[in-house]
Amino acid sequence: MLVDETTEPMALPLSLLEYITNDFSGDREIGRGGFAVVYKGTIGDWAVAVKRLSNAFMDDKEFHREVQCLMRVKHKNVVRFLGYCADRQGSMEAYNGKLVMADVHQRLLCFEYIPKGSLDKYITDAYRGWRTCYKIIKGICEGLQFLHENHIIHLDLKPANILLDDSMAPKITDFGLSRCFDENQSRDITKTILGTMGYLAPEFREGGVITPSADLYSLGVIIIEILTRQKG
């Protein structure tokens, strides 16, 4: 069963994801960004999060890379990946004043649903005590350590990409910009700098240098925000 914790992530039919989100209806939308829209889906008594990716942001190669990264991750402080869908459908589209048949790519990811939402909603929470702060920081550190031990560099670590469960335990999410290194690889260089200003390490922002240290810089910024209860 999809939500069974012993089940490995699997390919999911588009029809299933359409069904559990009521055909991606607006009232099921729980998050929206520049690269994707997230919907809440229901399977019996269980809730899941279905992330519908923008075709303008991601091609098949990039989607395959993200799925590969997610398949390698299973940790209590990383959001659980349930499955993926890559589908093409024929659709009539307007082009130069005429209707033409076009392939519409559907790329979707399915995750466990985390009810409290993201950490950025709680950064300024004055009622959050030290024990809760420590629990959140410790969980983020343990999740990030697991990723680095498995040669995964997140590259977009920020409060909006850390979800909190009912017990305020953190779960790292959103691997859209992540890099999966080979076992003996320690760094990479890119000319494409994506991410969120304020959380980007200087060597990555200015020179495109990708190492685990890029995530550690982001982690340090997050810890400061948690402890000071101030954003930015």
UniProtKB/TrEMBL annotation:
Its EC number is 2.7.11.1. Residues 24-232 form the Protein kinase domain. It is an enzyme of class 2 (transferase). ATP binds at residue 51. SMART domains: S_TKc. Transmembrane segments: none annotated. The keyword Kinase applies. It catalyses: L-threonyl-[protein] + ATP = O-phospho-L-threonyl-[protein] + ADP + H(+); L-seryl-[protein] + ATP = O-phospho-L-seryl-[protein] + ADP + H(+). One of its GO terms (molecular function) is ATP binding. Keywords: ATP-binding, Kinase, Nucleotide-binding, Serine/threonine-protein kinase, Transferase. Coiled coil: none annotated. PROSITE patterns: PROTEIN_KINASE_ATP, PROTEIN_KINASE_DOM, PROTEIN_KINASE_ST. Belongs to the protein kinase superfamily. It comes from the Eukaryota. This is non-specific serine/threonine protein kinase.
